[in-house]
UniProtKB/TrEMBL annotation:
Residues 1-21 form the signal peptide. It is found in: Membrane. The chain crosses the membrane at residues 87-109. Keywords: Membrane, Signal, Transmembrane, Transmembrane helix. It is a multi-pass membrane protein. PANTHER family: LHFPL TETRASPAN SUBFAMILY MEMBER 6 PROTEIN, LIPOMA HMGIC FUSION PARTNER-LIKE PROTEIN. InterPro entries: LHFPL. It comes from the Eukaryota. One of its GO terms (cellular component) is membrane. This is LHPL6 protein.
Amino acid sequence: MASSLTCAGIIWAFLSFLCAAASCVGFFMPYWLLGSQLEKSVSFGTFRRCSYPVRDESRQMTVMVEQCGRYASFQAIPSAEWRICTVVTGLGCGLLLLVALTALMGCCVSELISRTVGRVAGGIQFLGG
């Protein structure tokens, strides 16, 4: 397998993949904010949450659901700012993954990544970050 990447390009490809993977894991995990509510530990991220309060209409009280899950819909995310954060962070992770996987393919395929493609990929990474 021939590669058009230099040693620095190969290092860039692997570091790009590691950073993209770390960003995606951080985006999908619901441990951005930790705290307690109704004497239970709670945590949530952009679109997942663990141990959240729900109104029980049959007993007319608020109970804690002690499980992790996504919000029921995009509109169920608490605020407009949090929805914007979800979209922007998700798009950034998608861009980072796109560049990282393209760079890794460049390690195996010759003439895939030229100087111009490398510069464009760097710009996309900057935008994704």
